[in-house]
Amino acid sequence: MTDTPMRDSRLNRYWFSIALWKRILFALALGVVVGAFWGEGASSISWIGGIFLRSIRMLVVPLILTTLVSGVVAMGKPSRLGSIGSKALALYLTTTALAITIGLAFGTLIAPGEGVVLAEASAQTLGEAVSLRDRLYGMIPTNPFAALAEGNVLAVIVFAILIGVGILLVGEKAKVLRDTFDAGAEVMLKLTFVVMELAPFGVFALIANVAGSQGAIALLQVVKLALAVYGACIVHIVVVQYGMVALVARLAPLPFIRGVVDPQLLAYSTSSSAATLPATMAAAEENLGVGKSVKSSVLPLGATVNMDGTALYVGIVSLFAAQAFGVPLEFSDYLAIGLTTTLVSIGSASVPSASLFLLAAVLTSIGLTEAQTAIVVGFILPFDRVLDMMRTVVNVTGDLAVATTIARYEDDLDVETYQHKPEL
In which domain, by residue range, is 231 found? Predict the structure, then answer.
């Protein structure tokens, strides 16, 4: 009778002795196999993935609020917020521009739209992309508590920054409030580690559902588009993001590559930068040694405004659409795609398939009609999730690369933690 508890104890120790990224990777591979054999039946376990996603999304808003306030206060003076924020925005805009360039290059070289017949695609009309003016309005919450309840991340970020600045300006009289947010940030990070232990089970269910309902066969319809998207994403990660760490931050890239595996795998399975944010912040602190002030300010901002993968993807799909409909493009059209994509990708929703909502604005800039846009969306929508998974990895990796680089320049990086080689 006593053997069963002992076996359970040994099994638990063995399970938790395995690095989380290995457990997630195994779950991802197993999910692909199970989904491929089970087919549509794999949807019966999708509720497991749903519980996991709801668990981590539950943490996002309180995590952003507490850690961002705590991080701003840790800066010591409001002027440092400007220094960090300006560097972050500059790097995010630069990497977005490079992402668009890489996307357009792959779209031109591979020409994924040539020979594609869109006649049988069912038109899908999506809502118009939110204008830049409305995005700016949305950053200022008329009711901060409503913004918290609705999960309006941009508004929560602005509100949290203002609270942090207010605490700094008040000084010692706000010590109780400062300590409260510090304690709240610690609690939320601990909860993040607890919820992340559910990741292997959630990832297994999510991937099994995707593989069962769509599978690799669906990608055969857009194999050239998939090659262009995945190829461009990999090049952007290796050349731009790893290159930023190596050349701009002047850090060995291998520790960074090791340190970002957990959030990368989670991003690939959830297709959501926002849902991955708790894991991203945990990896920044525990694996990369990014300090509180940078981690708590740069990463929430990045999850909202840094959409390298989105920009890259929209650029490729724009060329795909033009090629499929036989629309000739001049150099000015490429510039229009780049500029429009940059503007509409900033602050786009960090949820699955959000990129498709941006296509209307970009395709209009090169002369495609609303009817043609609807056909393109209808053609891509059935297997967009598989493409979305990879571009989310680009977004999350970019957030961590920028945070690491800024932490290096702000002297807010624990180099010993960064260089520490974790047990594999």
Answer: 10-419
Using CA atoms, how far apart are residues 376 and 124, in angstroms rounded to an integer?
8
Using CA atoms in the order 278, 348, 272, 35, what is the torsion angle rounded to 10 degrees? Answer: 180
Give the model confidence (pLDDT) of 51-109 as tens digits: 888 887 788 788 888 888 888 887 777 777 777 888 888 898 889 889 989 999 998 89
> How far apart are alpha carbons 71 and 74 in whole angstroms?
5
Paired strand residues for 290: 413
Cα dihedral 18/403/137/60 (nearest 10): 20
Burial of 211 (0-12, 13-18, 19+ CB in 10 A): buried
Closest alpha carbon to 396 in 291, 251, 283, 293:
283
pTM of the model: 0.78
User: Which residue is it, tokens 């795909």?
Assistant: 320
Q: Which residues pair with 413 in a beta bridge?
A: 290
pLDDT of residue 7: 56
In a domain, 182, yes or no: yes
Q: pLDDT per residue over 287-309, tens digit each? A: 999 988 888 888 888 877 787 88
> How far, in Å, CA of 306 to CA of 94, rounded?
10
Alpha-carbon distance 98 to 101, whole Å? 5
Q: Are 374 and 123 in contact (CB under 8 A)?
A: yes
Residues 345 and 155: their CA atoms lie apart, in Å, by 17
The CATH number given to whatever domain includes residue 392 is: 1.10.3860.10
Closest CA to 35 of 385, 391, 351: 385
Q: Is residue 424 part of a domain?
A: no
Length of the chain: 424
Cα gap 9→1, rounded to integer Å: 14
| DSSP characters over 352-392 | TTGGGGGHHHHHHHTT--HHHHHHHHHHHGGGHHHHHHHHH
Q: Return d(Cα 187, Cα 149) in angstroms, integer.
A: 20
pLDDT tens readout for residues 358-402: 676 677 777 777 777 777 777 777 677 778 888 889 999 999 999
Confirm whether 4 is domain-assigned. no
User: Which amino acid belongs to residue 29?
Assistant: A
Q: How far apart are CA 118 and CA 219, in angstroms?
A: 15
SS3 call for 350: coil
Is residue 146 in some structural domain? Answer: yes
Give the span between the Cα atoms of 23 and 174, in whole angstroms. 43
The 8-class DSSP code of residue 325 comes to T
The tally of domains found in the chain comes to 1
